[in-house]
Amino acid sequence: MTQRAMTSALSLANRAALGIFGVMFCIYLLGPILAFIPMSFNDVALLHYPIERFSLRWYSNLVASSEWRLALLNSVVVATSATVLATILGVCAAFGLWRGRFRGHSIIMVVIMTPMIVPSVIGAISMYFSFAEIGMDYTYSALILAHTAMAAPIVVVTVSAVLARFDGNLLRAAASLGADPLLAFRKVTLPLIMPGVVSGAVFAFAISLDDVVVALFLAGPDQRTLPVQMYMRSTDLFDLATAAAAAMMFIVAVAMMIFLELLRRRDRLAPVAKAADSRR
Amino acid sequence: MPNIARDQARSERAAKFRALMLVVPILLFLLVVFIGPVVKLLSRSVDDRDVASALPQTAQALAEWRWGTPLPDAAYGAMVGDLRAASTPANLAPAAGRLNYSLPGMRALLMTTRTKLQALDRPEADPKSILISLSAKWAEPATWANIRQAAGPITDFYLLTAVDLKRDFDGSIARVPPSQSSFLPSIRTTFVIAFTVTLLAIVFGFPFAYLMASATERVAGIMMFVVLLPFLTATMVRILAWGILLGREGVINYGLLSSGLVDGPLDLLYNRTAVNIALLHIFVPYMILPLYSVMKTVPLSHMRAAASLGAPPFTAFRRVYLPQIAPGLAAGSLLVFIQCLGVFVVPAILGGAQEQGLPSLIAHYVNKTLNWGLAAALSVILLVSVYLVYWLFVTLTKSASLSLGTR
Questions:
Q1: Considering only Cβ atoms within 10 Å of each terminal Cβ, which end of chain B, N or C, has fewer?
Q2: pLDDT higher than 80, residue A45
Q3: Does domain B183-403 have CATH number 1.10.3720.10?
C-alpha cells in the first residue's frame, strides 16, 4: 500500500469513528427526553417498555387535579406577564443603547447582564428576602417581577444583535420625511427588527417557564408553577402525572423551536442562533 | 452660521438624552428588583447588630475589655439590666440565636437566665454572684468573650465560618479542626463538578461541533435541531428524564435485568456520575453553539495549507486551527463553568450527599436554619468565584465576542 492510500484509509477510519460518535451523541442528547415522554401514555405506572396499554389516564389525572391545574395556569400567567414586561424593557433598552452610543456602554451592559451571571440561588434568596421585608413574598407580582428581571437581559442581547445590522440612515430618511422619532420607530425600526424582538420574547418565555429555583423561594402554595410542582413531586417518580406535565412542556419546547426556525427563515437577520445563521 | 452648529449640537444632545431615557427604565428596574436585593443580601454577611441592640449595656461594658484581663464588674450588672429589660423572650431571640452560632449553648443560657432573673426580687444588688449562681457558665470568660466579639456593628464571623476558619477569643484566626469543618468540602465539590463537566463538555462538544461544521447543510441542520430541542426543553423535564432512565426501577436497569446482563438492579442514581451525566446534557449546548459558530468561519483550506507546508496533523491543529477557534472554546467553557457553579436542582434530585455543593448549602441555611448571615457569606464566596472566573476568561482572551451574552 502506498503511503497516500494508507493515509486516506486512516482518515476514512477516523471519519467513520467521528460519524459513529456523532450518532451516539445525538442519541445521548435526544434519547432521555424521547424515552421519558411516551411513558405518560402508559396505562400502568411502569417505567419501562414496551408500553402495554395505551391510555390518557395520566393526562385526565393531571387535568382533574386542582393542584396541577393551578400550576399549569400559574406557569402560563407568570411566563406571559414576565415576557411582556421583559420585552418592553428589553426593546427600549436595546434601542436606546443603539441610538445613544454612550460612553459608559459596556458598564451599562454589565449591569443589564447581572441577572444572567449571578447564580439563580443567590438571586432567588436575595429577592425572597427583599420582597418578604415589604410583605410581597408569596405573591404573583413578586414572582412576575423576579422573572422579568431574569428574562430582560436575553431580550436586550437578542434585539441588540438585530439592531447591529439595522441601517440607521433609514431613520434619517424617515425624519426628513417629517416622521417624529416615535412614528419612525413604529413604522420603520420595529417592523425591520421584529424577528429579533419576537425571538427575544420566545427566549424570555423559555427562561420564565424553565425557572425552578426562583419560583421555589418566591412562590407560595398558590403561586406554584409547573416546574415547581414537578420538583415537589419528583420524589415520587411513579406518579406519571409528572410525565404527562413533562410531555406538555416538551410540546411547548417543540412549538418554540418551530417558531424560532420559521422566524429565522423569514428573516435572515434573526439572531435565533448566530450559529444557525452562519451556516448559510 | 454658528446658530446652525449650535442647534445641531443641541439636537444631538437631545437625541442622546432621549436615547438614555430609554435605557433608564431597565436599569432602575434591575436595580430595585435584582441588584439592590443581591447587594442587601451580601451585606448581611458582615452585618452584626443584633447583639448590641438586644444587650446594649453589656456591649458597652465589654467594649474596652480584652481577653486575658479580668472581666470588668460592670459587665455583670449590665447583663442583668439588659436581660431584665427584655420584656419578652422574642426581644432576645435574634441576639440569642447569633450568640449560639459562635458558641453553642448560648441561646439556652440567655433564655433561662432571663426567666430566672424575672422571678428574683432585687438581682441588681449583687449581679455577679447571682448570675454565677444561676449558671456556672457566667463565670467562664469564653461566654463574655463571645458576646464581646458579637457586639458588632460588623463582623467577619460568617465569612470566616464559610471557609472553615474561626477567630479565637484572643483575636487570632485559626483553622477549624477537620472533623468539624463542613464548608470547604462543599466548596471543593462545587468546583470539582464544574471542572469535570466543563472538561466533558469540551471532550464531547468539540468533535460534535466539528462534525456539524464540516457536515453538509442538511446534516448540520438536523444536528442543530438535536442540540436545540433539548436546550429549549425545560430543565426540570430533562432532570426527571434522567431520574427515570437511571433509577433502580428505571429504563436502563429494566433493560439490563430483562436481558440477563445483571442479577440485581444497579445503583445508577444519587451519585457523582449521574450528576455529571445530567449536567453535561443540560450545559453541552452552551459549548457546542459558540464552538460551531467560530468553526464555521475557519476555512478548511487553512489546515490543508499547513499540511502542504509539511506540518503533521497535530501540529497543524495546534498551531493553525486551535488559535482560530479559541474564542469559541473560551466562551463555551466560561458559560458551562459559571452555570455549573450555580446549579442547585440537579444535585438535589439526582445527587447524593456527596454532590451537594455551595448552592445547596446556601438554600439549606435559608430554608432550614434561617441563618441568613451564613447563607450570605456563602453567597459572597459563590458570587466572587463566578465573577473571578468571568474576569479571568475575559482577561485571558480579551475577545469582544466573549465579553457579553453569547447565550
A1: N
A2: no
A3: yes
